[in-house]
Amino acid sequence: MSLIDDLNKKSYYDYMILFLITLIVSANVYLNILSFYNPKSFGNALVFLIIDPVFLVLLDIAYKKLILRKTIVLPKTAIISGLFVAGIMDPTAPVYVHLIAGAIAILSKHLIRNKMRNIFNPAGFGITLTGLVFTYLLKMPVAGSWWLATTLLAIPFGLYISYRLQKLPMSIAFLVVYSLTAVLVRNFPLAQVLEPSFLSGYFFFSCFMLLEPRTSTYSFKPMVIFGVLVAILSGVMPLFVPTIEYTLVGLLLMNLFTDVLEKKFPDQ
Fold first, then answer.
1. Domain match, 190 and 92 both
2. Are residues 101 and 17 in the same domain?
3. 10 Å Cβ neighbour count for 174?
4. CA–CA distance from 168 to each of 229, 234, 265 (Å)?
5. Tens digits of per-residue pLDDT, 171-189?
6. Are 169 and 185 members of one domain?
7. CA–CA separation, 221 and 205 (whole Å)
8. Which of 150, 169, 186 is the last residue of a domain?
């Protein structure tokens, strides 16, 4: 079997896991070399790379075995959610904050759903709800740092994931509209929007988080509309509530309308 044949046989989940691990490790090394992170952050990030996915896998298996009575198989989606939690949340946050976000992600996948699928992006829901509870109720600021998206590797990796899922229209729609919103509504200088750190961060969001297969639209028109509306919500919300994870909140709000968009704007 040739290398190309072997690569073609790998699933979206395999590539997602490989790319996320690569992004976490490379970003961690990059930030440490530039001395943006202290030694504690460097060590914590590598620890969370192991702890978060393992915890989510064990929790997902336990729920499926004890509650759903299903046969145990390795849940790749739980690994992916764990890698998102590890790479997006602040590596200096306490371990229990990461574990709470992960637990919420897994439980939301199983409990907040319609007949066919879960409603919300699991990792996005876990990270957002954890941040809101700790920041506003417990007065302990917890926010996503999105540090895994600090290298430009997020751009080619993200584009490949989006292409593989056939969701480039959604990713492109978000990137274009979000950039325009940043310049026209939030008065960002164009040079800032084109900075590598800006581009890598929003390529990561648009090509990894935005297009989660089970919670986002899949037809052409709904994909474009979904991407545009998430971009508008994400671009406008900081004007009113600047401390929330506005891109994730925008995504979660639109997750509620995935089925509506598919029914309202079917491809001919």
1. no
2. yes
3. 30
4. 16, 19, 18
5. 999 999 999 999 999 888 9
6. yes
7. 20
8. 150
Answer whether 196's CB lies under 8 Å from 240's CB.
no
Instruction: Give 102's pLDDT tier (boundaries 50, 70, 90).
Output: very high
pLDDT digits (tens, 9 = 90+) for 112-137: 998 889 999 999 999 999 999 998 88
The mean-pLDDT minimum among 82-86, 156-160, 238-242 falls in 238-242
Tokens of 227: 């991407």
Q: In sequence order, what DSSP letters do the residues of 102-170 get, joined into one string?
A: HHHHHHHHHHSB-SSSBSS-HHHHHHHHHHHIIIIIS-----B--GGG-STTHHHHHHHHHHHTT-HHH
Task: Give the domain extent around 22.
Answer: 1-150
Collapse the DSSP code of 89 into the 3-class scheme (helix H, G, I; strand E, B; otherwise coil) and give the result. strand
For the chain, what is the total number of helices (H) and then of strands (E)? 13, 0
Same domain, 206 and 249: yes
26 and 93 part of one domain: yes
Give how many domains the chain has, as a whole number: 2
Amino acid, res. 90: D
The pLDDT tens digits of the residues spanning 207-221 come to: 999 999 999 999 999
